Amino acid sequence: MEAELAALAASGATTLMALMVSESWEQAKGRLTRFLARRRSDEESVGELQLSSEELSRARAEGDAVASADIEDRWQRRLLDVLHADPDAAAELRGLLAELGDLLPRTVGSGRLAEMAGRRVAADEMAAAVGHGQRR
After folding, report:
1. 89, 96 Cβ separation under 8 angstroms
2. pLDDT at res. 106
3. Could you tell me which residues are beta bridge partners of residue 84?
4. The whole model's pTM is what?
5. For a tag on the chain, would you pick the N or C end, based on fewer CB atoms within 10 A?
6. The pLDDT of residue 132 is above 50
7. Per-residue pLDDT tens for 68-105?
8. pLDDT at site 119
9. Maximum alpha-carbon separation in the chain
10. Residue 116's closest CA among 8, 12, 7, 21?
11. Could you tell me which residues come within 8 angstroms of residue 15 by beta carbon, excluding any fewer than 6 positions away?
12. 28 burial level (CB within 10 Å; 0-12, 13-18, 19+)
């Protein structure tokens, strides 16, 4: 169970990072805020997401892959904390990732690479990470 939660948190963090640098960020931010607000206020969650988005934009502009990875790691830990604190959060996060995955740009062909969150990820790996084609 722990490995499954860790994988879900990692998928969530990867998706979150990809959305932060996409044109769909504002649309996704509201949905993510509602999910994160289960343990904090909406205002705290919005502030946390906005700060991370600004940090990621700065890191990408400066070509700082280490800072980008640090932001993703922080979100993975944050999501894992939510999953540990609330048993119902896993199902909700899976559904949210499937929904938010539809906001991400598609890359044609499983061998092509899409740049996401400051690193290169195989398109088929990203689709699996956000749950396309695989619902648990």
Report:
1. no
2. 63
3. none
4. 0.74
5. N
6. no
7. 999 999 999 999 999 999 989 999 999 999 999 888 87
8. 39
9. 41
10. 21
11. 97, 100, 101, 104, 129, 130
12. buried
Q: At 116, phi and psi to the nearest 5?
A: -145, 130
pLDDT at 63: 96
Handedness of CA 85, 95, 129, 133 (dihedral sign): positive
Angle between helix axes 2-20 and 89-101 (nearest 10 degrees) is 30
Q: Rounded to an integer, what distance in angstroms lies between the CA atom of residue 92 and that of residue 38?
A: 11
- Using CA atoms, how far apart are residues 112 and 118, in angstroms rounded to an integer? 16
Distance between CA 9 and CA 5 in Å, rounded? 6
13: its two tokens: 């963090």
